[in-house]
Amino acid sequence: MSIYTLHRQVRQLDKTFCGNGRKYSTGDVLFSGQGKRIVLGQYIAEGGEGSVFAVHLPSETTLVAKLYHPPQRMRWREQKLQLICSRPIRSPCVAWPRAVLYDELRRFVGVLMPRVDGVPLGAFTSHAELLKKQFPLWT
After folding, report:
1. Taking the alpha carbons of 49, 54, 58, 61 in that order, is the dihedral positive or negative?
2. Pairing of strands 63-68, 108-114
3. What is the DSSP letter of 49?
4. pLDDT tens-digit profile of 4-31?
């Protein structure tokens, strides 16, 4: 046996489509994994993965719902988000997912997370000059 023996098998991502094909809008109702009713507020933005809506829940910080576009609603993404939500991080600097969102038939559609304002770090990480200009004290 070689010292370079692979000790773990690589698992394939489950690419099963698990959501519905519906697009959502303000006023639509979704549910958390625990059955909490989530009403979508004002539309905020749309990107390559999905759309973002404001959500206001009593006794919570300002939250948003990130709803994935239908082709992005894959089983592996739902499973990843369930794992992330099971290991909470509470920081005003991190938009860590709080709950996976489902439709009325318990089909995966998105994630509930804190709303944060700032600059996406990914826009600067590959450009040293931009990173230094935006975050001059970061070493």
Report:
1. positive
2. antiparallel
3. S
4. 555 566 567 777 777 788 889 999 999 9
